[in-house]
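Incident log entry.

Two folding requests arrived from the same account within the same minute. Monitoring flagged them as a possible duplicate submission, but the sequences differ. Recording both here for audit purposes.

Request one:
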Amino acid sequence: MNAMQIAADRGWNVAEVHDKRSAHFDTIRLDVETDSSVTTVEGAVVLGKPRLMHVDGIYCEAPLTVRWCV
């Protein structure tokens, strides 16, 4: 499965950025833009389990459930 191709097929703009200043080495940040606002969420894999780490810059560590959809 090619995530970049799926994103392109759905009309999503994707930018890959590497930031060595992040507190976690394997994080992903999503900036979701709508007509009215932008929401930023950041997650990481901690001890082998996915975690939500920040929402709009606010720390809020919470477990995530992985669910695949195509």
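Request two (distinct sequence, not a duplicate):
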Amino acid sequence: MTDNKENLLDKTPKIFRFKWNHYFFEFIVLFLAVFLGFLSENYREYIAERKKEVKEVSSLIEDLKVDVETIKKNIDVIDIAILYTDSLLLLIEKIPSMDSLDYSFNALNSRSSPYLRFKSVDRTSSQLKNGGQMNLIEDVNLSNEILNYWKLGEITMDTQERCNVYRLKSREIYFAAFRTYQFDLMDNKLLPRQKIPLVKSELSRLGEWANYISSCGAIFKGHKENLKIQSDAAISLIKNINKTYSF
């Protein structure tokens, strides 16, 4: 009887030890399965983000190319405006007692004060800004370059707005001081081409008109430089994106 009890005690630790090892092994297997699943999910998300990153920067390149072309067209318009602004101011200076306008003067005034319409394409930038997706861009230097380009765009839009404000002020005086509707009658051949008289009550505003034209011309020159800087930044950004992503 005693021998049987001793044999039973001898076997119990072996059975307990076997079960403990078995549970520990199962725990390790489950832990590894969960951990590998976690790593797999993270890797899948990483790959998805990289694909989205490539898609966004590819779209950004297309936007930048459009910006470069649009900037070039705006600079051409500004060059013409600067030329006509100088001619217009010289003409006003030579005729200080101006009391009428001839037909060609209207075209000269219009070309010296075009309405500027440049706007950066924001298809991709709006997604990166508002969607909080700038963190998709892993390269810090490239991310900073993109942010800098957006800041340059804000500066460009600021000078453009100033140009358009002065243009509007000058045109308000122009339309108040001259009977410009008669130019339309001439264009439609309802009136022969003739001089357009000045509204006498507005005669004192010709100097103010010239000042607005002059100010607008000066801002045109600064705006042109801002456009050139933004264009150079866009070209550089396109080059660096292509280099970073091996497009």
